[in-house]
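Protein details
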Amino acid sequence: MRILICNDDGIDSAGIYALASEIKTIADVTVVAPHQQQSAVGHAITVNYPLRAVPFHKNGEFFGMAVDGTPADCVKLAIKSLMKDNPPDLVLSGINHGSNTAVNIIYSGTVSAATEGTVLGIPSIAFSLTSYTNLDFNYAAKFAARLVNMVAKNGLPAGTLLNVNIPNIPERDIKGVLITKQGISTWEDRFDVRRDPANREYFWLTGSMNVTDTELDTDQIAIENGYISVTPVHYDLTNRAMLNEMKQWEIEKLK
């Protein structure tokens, strides 16, 4: 089994190293990841500038290819060029520093890397550890390997990826695994107004999650209650219920 691993925190992050190290025990691993931090870039791709991919070494050994682009760039470049003669059987993204639940899925470079794999016809999974401090990736990586084996056995529907969020708590405190839906909680954005050394004004985006979900089978509430959240996600954005409603508008008469 050949597995491509990407992320959005950058190729030198602790999360991708933990994931790659664990997955190497069950599969052949190729790492292609951003050279630098690319969090919250969504599904952006580079079209007006050249992409460069250079070998990256960690602890004195070759680890993977570092790309000066976005997570989606990395997956596209890997599948269409770097691995075109031996394409991966699965694409994994992560392990991300911080959760990717509810509206964050839209902004997430981690999820977008897995989405790009799905767009290109390869089963894909995004993994996130739900904290930014005191991170312990050991259990998350082990769970990822077990889920990879399950997906390799059962497959995923065309156009569907898995978005996985793992609480950053001791393994003994994990209550279980829940199949969840994407929540509707949103991000409460704030802009800090600051001044640079030349006294010029600039803005720094901050904020916090405004949790409005209440049901345990939503991703955000599941992780808050100590469960691993596994959410099947697809990139078909069509509101099918609205399709039927709009047929009553008789829009065709606007011509």
User: Anything to note?
Assistant: The helical segments are 14-23, 71-82, 104-107, 109-119, 138-154, 219-224, 240-246. The first strand starts at residue 2 and ends at 6. DSSP finds seven helices and eleven strands in the chain. The two ends are 53 Å apart (CA to CA).
